[in-house]
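Just wondering, can you check both lines?
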Amino acid sequence: MMCKKKFIVSAVLVFVLHVAQAQATEPKTAVKTFDGDSRFMQWVLLGSFLNEPLEKPLPDGVAFNGYHKDYLESLGGEPKAVLTTKTKVTYTDKDGKEHTVAARLVTANQRGEVPLNDLYPGDPNHVVDYAYCEIDSPRAQKVHFAFGSDDGTKIWLNGRLIHTIYKARPTVLREDWFEGQLKKGRNCLLVKIPERIGGWSFALEMFSPEEYEQIQALLREKKLFKAFQENEITPECKWDFMFEVGKFPTLQWKNPMLAEAYLGSAPLKVAWYDADLNEVAVPEKPGRYAAVIETQTKDGRKIRRGMTFYCRPKDWRPWRDNPKAYFQYLPGSPIDKQAMEDRKEKLAEHFGMALVGELETKPNGAMMMCYLSEIKPLEGNKASWLDRADIVNDDYLLALKRKVLGIEKKYPGLKPPRKRNAPATVLHQGTPAQAGVTEDAAEKIREVCKRWYAESKEPFAVLIARNGVIVLHEAFGENGYGQPINIDTPMYMASITKAMTGVLFAQFLDQELAKLDEPIGNVLTDFPTEGDKAITYRNCFTHTLDLEGHYEFGGMHNPWLDNVIANGLKYMTPNQKVQYNGMGYDLAGKAMELLGNKSIFRLFEENFLGPLGCTNTTMDDLACATTSSAEDIARIGQLLLNKGSYGDLEFFSAETFEKLLPTDLSKYYPGVKKDWGVGLTWQNDEKTAIGHGAASSAILYVDLPQNLVVSQTRNTAGEKYEEYRKEMFKVIQDCIVKK
């Protein structure tokens, strides 16, 4: 009897073990149910496949073969493919080499985003993945999908292509909206995500028509409010940006109906100030004046605006004397130069009257007229880049803002860089041995650059330095007018500007004028200092404050930009996601202006660019609008390599430098899995090089352990940019003498 019992127990154990083994090896797929959560949290992921560059872009703009190539032919093709955890696919690349990829089950993060970069070693580029999920629907119904991806996508539902987009972009949740028709029971959904370079992720959500309409209503409300944020204040008479002595113009909203929707009957309270910042009731003399306008929304939010006007003398009528403005010929334009010369005087009359119209009817015209009425002859006949109408106006309106806020003496201001006891490394000439490169390094890099320009026809300048020794500093190519560029030709830096702003902010950190995780509401009082709407400097620099766009609402030239942004807090959810934008940098800039007691571009020049010796750099924004030369950008690179010092100046300490480096944002914002620094990002897979990318494809690359700085200035990528960029960096690495 005992033996029989032992046999039964053993048999049961064997059966349970067998079932467990069968379950462990049974193919699984991902299933999405209608459980009240819009996010697709589980996927069967298959990849990665090679996304090889094409020799020549296709007519539809596609430049990589992976977007159109069907890697799932062995499974019946992309529209029919069903993926499980047991799926394997073998495919052949363009060189005839076979590759096998396997599927696996993956889970999205708290945002519903699948961070593909984190699922593969080495942060892969030029690859393609497929993600598969089955939707279990209780009935046939229409649904709405919201999607975001880095980069483009193709999406099939039950074999039908329901969404397609080809573009390089960051992942923005709910960027794309499209419909789908579900059948009762299981529905097959396949998502294809091609990757170029940089980030690589996607997120999908699904909503009922009712949920979709609620979301769209909120988006419409947000869009309408943004239109109100952009609503301008103008004089009642359009000519009164240049008004006459004796009476200030009456001001009104440009779109009064839009203003009424948010303000109701709240009036505009206008205070007028003269050029010396004195509040005045009547304009008794010609010159610069400013209006500070205040009102409030129906729900109590304070609205502030600031504007510049010019008061002209009573007896001056600029249009009466038929002013002339001579217009220079535009080299390379389709205009016939001789025909233009033949009509020079008539054209000058036309442009002269157009200029007067601009001075009288536009905010920029009033600003320019104030500037022209104030300027004096220059000593040495050379103007600084700060000697511009808009920057002089920024100085004036900032001083007025500080007076209105009552903080003229609240902050000590930003101190200049400190003197060092021992000079830090500077860019300088030297031998290849001193640079730690091979004797032929310059020639090898030069040869790549020559071929690069010959193929792309996009001019650029480059500076490569190691141990501070300049290995190569040359310009390649001609500009659009057929003229050779030189090493000092300013070119578009685009988002490398963000790195520059981060370096300026480092001085505020170093002098303890600000702290990274301090709320900006401590300085910009329209913002809260606690709660879920409190915004920190780290939010501003790491794209986690939930703003969009670049150069919005007048950018840094709007004295009350911070107020405009604060009025949109209702629609912002800080700390939830990375959404790439430039407005966070401008917002931090508004705090830096108050803390530093100078307008932002004056702070840049007097506390950063000037002391660093950057003589070919001009700025117009804190996130995108900078032109510079390869040497100026390389000086910034060497400053970073030196951890805050250059020559006999210390801009910030090595301890402060560490605070700028990219770090895992999930330490501060749970669920936000992304490395980002204060204007700096990792520039290689090993996370040893820092810098920032640029829409112009300019380069700032600082390899810390190799003491290497690479800067390249250019206005656009041109053909085969990635191919030649990789080749140049490979040659640089090959030329470094290994110890």
In short: The radius of gyration is 30 Å. The first helix runs from residue 2 to 25. The chain has three domains: 28-207, 229-374, 463-735. Residues 49 and 501 are 38 Å apart (CA to CA).
